[in-house]
Amino acid sequence: MKFLHYLILFSFLLTTGIALRAQTTQAIQGIVFDKATGQRIGSVFIKNAKSKANTYNNVRGEFGIPVTAGDTIIAAKEGFSSDTLVYQDQRVLLVYLQRSSIYIAQVDVFARKSPEEILAQRRKDYNKAYKLADPGSIFSVGPSGAGISIGSIFNMLSKEGKNARRFTKVIQREYEDNVVDSKFTPDLVQNLTGLSGQKLRVYMSNFRPSYAFVMMATQYELSAYIRSKYEIFKLNPNLRYLPKLPDLDLEVNN
Asked: How far, in Å, are 58, 67, 71, 188, 228 from residue 192 at the CA level?
Protein backbone atom coordinates (compact mmCIF):
# COMPACT_ATOMS: atom_id res chain seq x y z
CA MET A 1 0.00 0.00 0.00
CA LYS A 2 2.86 2.33 0.89
CA PHE A 3 4.52 1.48 -2.43
CA LEU A 4 1.40 2.56 -4.30
CA HIS A 5 1.30 5.79 -2.28
CA TYR A 6 4.94 6.60 -3.14
CA LEU A 7 4.33 5.76 -6.80
CA ILE A 8 1.41 8.20 -6.99
CA LEU A 9 3.43 10.89 -5.19
CA PHE A 10 6.37 10.38 -7.55
CA SER A 11 4.12 10.62 -10.59
CA PHE A 12 2.55 13.82 -9.26
CA LEU A 13 5.92 15.44 -8.61
CA LEU A 14 7.18 14.38 -12.04
CA THR A 15 4.11 15.81 -13.77
CA THR A 16 4.30 19.01 -11.75
CA GLY A 17 7.97 19.40 -12.61
CA ILE A 18 7.30 19.00 -16.29
CA ALA A 19 4.45 21.53 -16.12
CA LEU A 20 6.56 24.01 -14.21
CA ARG A 21 9.40 23.60 -16.68
CA ALA A 22 6.98 24.17 -19.54
CA GLN A 23 5.77 27.37 -17.89
CA THR A 24 9.27 28.72 -17.26
CA THR A 25 9.72 32.16 -18.81
CA GLN A 26 12.74 32.62 -21.05
CA ALA A 27 14.00 35.26 -23.46
CA ILE A 28 13.55 34.17 -27.05
CA GLN A 29 15.30 35.73 -30.03
CA GLY A 30 13.55 36.45 -33.31
CA ILE A 31 13.87 38.09 -36.73
CA VAL A 32 11.23 39.89 -38.81
CA PHE A 33 11.20 39.62 -42.62
CA ASP A 34 9.27 41.20 -45.47
CA LYS A 35 7.25 38.29 -46.86
CA ALA A 36 7.33 39.67 -50.42
CA THR A 37 11.04 40.46 -50.72
CA GLY A 38 12.66 38.36 -47.99
CA GLN A 39 14.46 41.43 -46.67
CA ARG A 40 14.68 42.13 -42.95
CA ILE A 41 12.38 44.81 -41.54
CA GLY A 42 13.32 47.15 -38.69
CA SER A 43 11.23 49.21 -36.25
CA VAL A 44 8.58 46.50 -35.89
CA PHE A 45 6.51 46.52 -32.68
CA ILE A 46 6.67 43.12 -30.93
CA LYS A 47 4.23 42.22 -28.12
CA ASN A 48 3.55 39.17 -25.98
CA ALA A 49 -0.26 39.07 -25.89
CA LYS A 50 -0.31 37.15 -22.57
CA SER A 51 2.36 38.87 -20.49
CA LYS A 52 1.94 42.27 -22.22
CA ALA A 53 5.72 42.51 -22.56
CA ASN A 54 6.66 44.48 -25.67
CA THR A 55 9.63 45.83 -27.57
CA TYR A 56 10.78 47.08 -30.98
CA ASN A 57 13.22 45.17 -33.14
CA ASN A 58 16.46 46.75 -34.40
CA VAL A 59 17.47 47.87 -37.89
CA ARG A 60 18.65 44.32 -38.66
CA GLY A 61 15.16 43.00 -37.91
CA GLU A 62 16.29 41.25 -34.70
CA PHE A 63 14.48 41.27 -31.35
CA GLY A 64 14.33 39.52 -28.00
CA ILE A 65 11.27 39.07 -25.76
CA PRO A 66 10.41 36.93 -22.70
CA VAL A 67 7.99 34.09 -23.44
CA THR A 68 6.63 30.84 -22.12
CA ALA A 69 5.30 27.94 -24.14
CA GLY A 70 1.93 28.72 -25.66
CA ASP A 71 2.34 32.50 -25.61
CA THR A 72 1.08 34.42 -28.63
CA ILE A 73 3.49 36.95 -30.13
CA ILE A 74 2.10 39.85 -32.16
CA ALA A 75 4.20 41.78 -34.71
CA ALA A 76 2.94 45.07 -36.14
CA LYS A 77 4.32 47.83 -38.35
CA GLU A 78 2.72 50.64 -40.34
CA GLY A 79 2.33 49.65 -43.98
CA PHE A 80 2.17 45.94 -43.13
CA SER A 81 -0.57 43.59 -41.99
CA SER A 82 -0.10 42.49 -38.37
CA ASP A 83 0.92 38.88 -37.79
CA THR A 84 0.69 36.51 -34.84
CA LEU A 85 2.89 33.59 -33.92
CA VAL A 86 2.50 31.02 -31.12
CA TYR A 87 5.69 30.13 -29.22
CA GLN A 88 6.13 26.36 -29.08
CA ASP A 89 9.72 25.92 -27.93
CA GLN A 90 11.22 27.24 -31.18
CA ARG A 91 14.88 28.18 -30.91
CA VAL A 92 14.31 31.34 -32.98
CA LEU A 93 11.06 33.07 -33.91
CA LEU A 94 10.88 33.87 -37.61
CA VAL A 95 8.17 36.42 -38.40
CA TYR A 96 7.06 37.25 -41.97
CA LEU A 97 4.97 40.39 -42.50
CA GLN A 98 2.83 40.96 -45.59
CA ARG A 99 2.69 44.49 -46.98
CA SER A 100 -0.77 46.02 -46.78
CA SER A 101 -0.21 47.83 -50.11
CA ILE A 102 1.38 46.73 -53.38
CA TYR A 103 5.16 46.94 -53.24
CA ILE A 104 6.79 48.75 -56.15
CA ALA A 105 10.55 48.75 -56.40
CA GLN A 106 12.20 52.15 -56.69
CA VAL A 107 12.60 53.27 -60.28
CA ASP A 108 14.65 56.26 -61.36
CA VAL A 109 12.67 58.27 -63.89
CA PHE A 110 14.43 60.67 -66.20
CA ALA A 111 12.04 63.22 -67.65
CA ARG A 112 12.19 63.79 -71.39
CA LYS A 113 12.82 67.38 -72.42
CA SER A 114 9.86 69.30 -73.78
CA PRO A 115 9.94 70.75 -77.34
CA GLU A 116 10.37 74.21 -75.84
CA GLU A 117 13.36 73.11 -73.77
CA ILE A 118 14.98 71.49 -76.81
CA LEU A 119 14.45 74.65 -78.90
CA ALA A 120 15.90 76.84 -76.14
CA GLN A 121 18.96 74.58 -75.97
CA ARG A 122 19.38 74.75 -79.75
CA ARG A 123 19.24 78.56 -79.63
CA LYS A 124 21.88 78.54 -76.92
CA ASP A 125 24.15 76.05 -78.70
CA TYR A 126 23.89 77.82 -82.06
CA ASN A 127 23.64 81.40 -80.88
CA LYS A 128 25.98 82.63 -83.63
CA ALA A 129 23.82 81.14 -86.38
CA TYR A 130 20.73 82.86 -84.97
CA LYS A 131 22.52 86.20 -84.88
CA LEU A 132 23.58 85.80 -88.51
CA ALA A 133 20.11 84.64 -89.55
CA ASP A 134 18.48 87.67 -87.93
CA PRO A 135 20.70 90.65 -88.75
CA GLY A 136 18.26 93.09 -87.17
CA SER A 137 16.95 96.31 -88.61
CA ILE A 138 18.75 97.63 -91.70
CA PHE A 139 18.25 101.13 -90.30
CA SER A 140 20.53 102.46 -87.61
CA VAL A 141 20.47 105.59 -85.49
CA GLY A 142 23.72 107.31 -84.74
CA PRO A 143 25.01 110.72 -83.63
CA SER A 144 24.48 112.09 -87.13
CA GLY A 145 20.91 110.74 -87.34
CA ALA A 146 19.22 107.74 -88.94
CA GLY A 147 21.01 105.78 -91.63
CA ILE A 148 21.49 102.41 -93.28
CA SER A 149 23.17 99.62 -91.28
CA ILE A 150 25.87 98.26 -93.59
CA GLY A 151 26.51 95.34 -91.25
CA SER A 152 22.88 94.22 -91.37
CA ILE A 153 22.78 94.43 -95.18
CA PHE A 154 26.03 92.46 -95.40
CA ASN A 155 24.66 89.69 -93.17
CA MET A 156 21.47 89.51 -95.24
CA LEU A 157 23.35 89.16 -98.53
CA SER A 158 26.36 87.11 -97.42
CA LYS A 159 26.62 83.38 -98.01
CA GLU A 160 27.21 82.84 -94.30
CA GLY A 161 24.01 84.69 -93.46
CA LYS A 162 21.98 82.66 -95.99
CA ASN A 163 23.35 79.38 -94.62
CA ALA A 164 22.50 80.50 -91.10
CA ARG A 165 18.90 81.21 -92.12
CA ARG A 166 18.60 77.76 -93.70
CA PHE A 167 20.02 76.19 -90.56
CA THR A 168 17.62 77.98 -88.22
CA LYS A 169 14.72 76.87 -90.44
CA VAL A 170 15.84 73.27 -89.92
CA ILE A 171 15.82 73.82 -86.16
CA GLN A 172 12.34 75.34 -86.39
CA ARG A 173 11.05 72.32 -88.33
CA GLU A 174 12.60 70.04 -85.69
CA TYR A 175 10.78 71.99 -83.00
CA GLU A 176 7.44 71.73 -84.83
CA ASP A 177 7.92 67.98 -85.32
CA ASN A 178 8.69 67.60 -81.61
CA VAL A 179 5.51 69.48 -80.71
CA VAL A 180 3.42 67.15 -82.89
CA ASP A 181 5.19 64.09 -81.44
CA SER A 182 4.51 65.28 -77.89
CA LYS A 183 0.75 65.45 -78.51
CA PHE A 184 0.11 62.85 -81.24
CA THR A 185 1.61 59.94 -79.28
CA PRO A 186 1.45 56.16 -79.90
CA ASP A 187 -0.14 55.67 -76.47
CA LEU A 188 -2.93 58.13 -77.22
CA VAL A 189 -3.67 56.64 -80.65
CA GLN A 190 -3.57 53.09 -79.30
CA ASN A 191 -5.97 53.94 -76.48
CA LEU A 192 -8.45 55.55 -78.89
CA THR A 193 -8.22 53.04 -81.75
CA GLY A 194 -6.89 49.80 -80.29
CA LEU A 195 -4.22 49.65 -82.99
CA SER A 196 -0.78 48.23 -82.25
CA GLY A 197 2.40 47.11 -83.97
CA GLN A 198 2.75 47.71 -87.71
CA LYS A 199 -0.85 48.93 -88.16
CA LEU A 200 -0.32 51.57 -85.49
CA ARG A 201 2.84 52.78 -87.22
CA VAL A 202 1.10 52.94 -90.62
CA TYR A 203 -1.85 54.85 -89.17
CA MET A 204 0.39 57.38 -87.44
CA SER A 205 2.40 57.90 -90.62
CA ASN A 206 -0.66 58.31 -92.85
CA PHE A 207 -2.67 60.59 -90.57
CA ARG A 208 -0.03 62.63 -88.78
CA PRO A 209 -1.59 66.04 -88.05
CA SER A 210 0.05 69.33 -88.92
CA TYR A 211 1.84 71.55 -86.44
CA ALA A 212 -0.75 74.29 -86.97
CA PHE A 213 -3.64 71.94 -86.15
CA VAL A 214 -1.95 70.53 -83.06
CA MET A 215 -1.27 74.02 -81.73
CA MET A 216 -4.88 75.12 -82.19
CA ALA A 217 -6.75 71.92 -81.28
CA THR A 218 -7.99 71.07 -77.80
CA GLN A 219 -7.49 67.57 -76.40
CA TYR A 220 -11.10 66.79 -77.29
CA GLU A 221 -10.61 68.00 -80.88
CA LEU A 222 -7.41 65.99 -81.24
CA SER A 223 -9.17 62.84 -79.97
CA ALA A 224 -12.06 63.45 -82.39
CA TYR A 225 -9.56 63.85 -85.23
CA ILE A 226 -7.88 60.53 -84.37
CA ARG A 227 -11.20 58.69 -84.24
CA SER A 228 -12.46 60.16 -87.53
CA LYS A 229 -9.24 59.27 -89.34
CA TYR A 230 -9.45 55.77 -87.87
CA GLU A 231 -12.78 55.27 -89.65
CA ILE A 232 -11.02 56.11 -92.92
CA PHE A 233 -8.09 53.87 -92.03
CA LYS A 234 -10.38 50.86 -91.47
CA LEU A 235 -11.58 51.08 -95.09
CA ASN A 236 -8.08 50.31 -96.35
CA PRO A 237 -5.61 49.58 -93.55
CA ASN A 238 -2.88 48.54 -95.99
CA LEU A 239 -2.87 51.85 -97.85
CA ARG A 240 0.28 53.86 -97.36
CA TYR A 241 0.45 57.48 -98.39
CA LEU A 242 3.55 58.85 -100.04
CA PRO A 243 5.66 60.87 -97.62
CA LYS A 244 5.41 64.63 -97.90
CA LEU A 245 8.13 66.16 -100.04
CA PRO A 246 10.53 68.42 -98.18
CA ASP A 247 10.26 72.16 -98.69
CA LEU A 248 12.70 73.35 -101.34
CA ASP A 249 14.85 76.38 -100.68
CA LEU A 250 15.19 78.09 -104.08
CA GLU A 251 17.40 80.87 -102.77
CA VAL A 252 20.32 81.21 -105.20
CA ASN A 253 23.82 81.83 -103.95
CA ASN A 254 25.77 84.45 -105.88
From this structure: 52, 62, 59, 6, 11
